Each structure stands twice: as structure tokens, then as C-alpha cells.
Amino acid sequence: MTNSSPILEFTELRKTINGQLLLNVPRVVLAQGQCVVLRGRNGVGKTTLLKIMAGLLPPDQCTVHFRGKRYSWTQAQRFYRNEVVYLHQQPYLFDRSVRANIAYGLRHRGRQGTQLNKTIDEALEWAGLTHLAQRDAPRLSGGEKQRVALIRARVLSPQVLLLDEPVAGMDREAREQTYALIGRLSVEGMAIMIATHDTDQNMGLGDRYLELADTKLRECGEAEYGAEVAKA
Amino acid sequence: MESLSAASYQALYLLLTGDRDLWEIIAISFGVSLRAILFTTPVALMVSFALAYTDFPGRQFLITTVNTMLALPAVVVGLLLYILLSRSGPLGDWRLLFTQSAMVIGQMVLCFPILVAMSHSAIQAGDRRAWETALTLGAHWWEAMLTVMYEVRFGLLAAVVAGFGRIIAEVGCSMMVGGNILHYTRNIPTAIALETSKGAFAQGIALGLVLIVLALVLNFLISFFRGRGGLA
Lengths: 232, 232
Known about the structure:
Chain A is α/β, with parallel strands linked by helices. Helices cover 34% and strands 28% of the residues of chain A.
């Protein structure tokens, strides 16, 4: 799906933190149904880039193109809330049940009553997490939290999903279950960007591979990525 | 002078037989303090949130001022309000001196810094991912703010309880701006001061018992909320 139409494009993106240039990215594009793997060392600015793209952190400068229309980052806030969802490395689940967590975003989109319950039931079933519906969300395991966070994002049908180290600290089984869910989301047409510092996390999901180093973003092929993984 | 045991016995008798004057004083005390805490809490929570989540000019000055106000003696607040509300004062036309409204204003000034300081600590110590998660799931800033407050609700409840404990027992301000008028502005602390000066200890002890029981209940509630906050 590498030739899909671009959904979200950032150009001339710059971000300075404490007087030090962290990001200087001429262009970064996410296309429909495309999964982009963003690799880089710890502290290189992956999370900052993702948060800027999610509208959670203001850049020093950048221009946003969303479905071909040009916006400033501030103007783009309007569609961020409906079209782009960001998941933290350790996703935050609100102090309420799993079901209420999934309902959170839906309620802000005006869903309620039977329609809301039906959407939640379907989502839980889709991810095989029906048994967790009434559980206290903060008490779930890391893998369960990540999967609940993924379906909490999925029910909102965002155009773009930004995942920050989605399998960090998970055991193999939880990692595989999470990869499987991400893969299914990608097939559904979401543009996905996955940030990872772990060179072992190629995960076979990527349509494109980017490397962030020394403020610059560099595209690299899967083979090159794999070679660098082997070197690292 | 009555013996302590006789006075205590009479105090219990007054409480348990529903002595009209005594229970009226208790009702005035709770009425004034509950209004004060009710009016102050929303403003204090907004200020606390702004201090924790935004950076604006004068923020540090405001934090220092609030912390300084924590040590402000009630009698000094009473004196300042007395000067403002007295006939010749700048707010004399409002004719509030020696009214319950003046007592409410005084108690609002007294509980505001406690509410802000404790709520600020609770919100500051909360997980910032809650704010970002709420926003990325489509919440408006004010909905995200309410979500963050819900997440730290036990800390905020502890702040409210501590603020209430501060004002229900204060005597200096209520005495100065309320005037200790029977059936109108006489509350528990001012009544205790008056009855003791008259040598009528029974009513003073009865009211003191109410404050002691209240202090126990409030401290139990604070411990409970802090404990829940730690578990959440």
C-alpha cells in the first residue's frame, strides 16, 4: 500500500527544546493504509515528533497538509481532535472500567445509549477482550492495557494512529497479540506510525521505514533497516 | 464554678435533648462554612489547574502568594475585611458588616489558599498522560480538565475537607465581621468564646464536643481520601 494517497503531511517542521534544536524535518508524510516505522535512539525526538503530529505539542514552525489542504499547526487543531489519535508508550487508561474507557472518546463524539453500547460490544469482541469489559482499567497488565487503548482508539475511526513504542516492556505473547491488532488496524485503512528504539521490533508491519537521528529524518528501505538492525 | 464533670454532663444533656439555641448555633456554623467552601471550591480548582498545567506571567508569584496566605491568621483577615466593610470603608455601601455574608466572604478568603495549595499539589502529582489522552480522544480542553480532576479526585476531596476543617473552627474572622449576634451570626467558635468568658461552660463544652467529633470525622475522611488516592 505504499502508493496510497497522503492523508497527513508535515513540512518544514522545526522544534527546539531548551534552546537546542531537536527536530529539523523538511517533510514527513503518512498515507492511507500505510504503516510507517519510525526508528531512532532514545531521546532523539521520536515522542516529540509524534506529539507534534498529534497536536499535543506545539512546534516552533511547521505547515500541515491534511487531505491536500494546507493549515498552520494551530489551525490543524480542529481536525486533530477527530482524525488523529496518539497512544503513549505506556497507554493511560482512565480510572474507571474498561468499558467506560472505550466509551470516553465516543461520548465526546455524541454517541450514547444503544448505539454506544453496541459499538463498545463490537470493539471488545473484535479484539477478543469481552472478558475484560467490567474490569478496573488501571489494574490490567501492560499488554491488556495496550490492547484496550488500541480498541479505544479504533472505535473513533481516526484517519491516523500514532503509536509510541507500543510493545515496550511486553513479553513475547503480549507483543504478538499487540502486533496482530496493529496489523488489523492497518488493513482497515488507518495510516499508522509506530515509533520504536528497539532494533528488534521490525515486526513485519512496516510499509516504510524512517530513521530519526541528529534532528533529521531519513527514509530507509526495509533491507537497509534490517541491516542496521543487525549491526546495532 | 461548675465542676468539669457536671458541665460535661450538662453539655451532653443539651446536645441530646436538642436544645434549640445550641443546635441553631451549630446550624449557622455549618450553613456559613458550607456556603464558603461551596463558592470557593470551583474557583480554587480552576486556579490550581491553571497553576499546574499552564505557564503564564506571574505564575510563580501567584504560587508564592498562595503559600504565604496559608499562614495568614484568621484575625488579620477579619481585620482587613472589617476595614473594607465598615461604614467608612471602601465597601461600606454594601452593608455587609455583621452579616452571615461577611462571614462567608471571610471564610472564603481563609479556605482559598488551602484549597489551591493542596489541589495544586494533587493535580501536579497526577499523571500528565491523562490530559494528553483526553485531548487525543477528542475532548475539549475543559472536558480534559474535568477528566484530569476526576483522576485525582481523592486528592481534591482531601483538599476540600481540609479547607472545611480550617474554616468551621476559626474564630477570629467570624467574630470580627460577624459580630457574634445570637440567632444570626453566632457560630460554634464565637459561641464557645462567649460562653467561656461568661463562665457558662456547659454550652461551650457541648459545642466543643461537636467540633472535636467533626475534627475526627474530617481527619478520617482526609486519611481515607489520601489512601484511595494512593491506591488509584
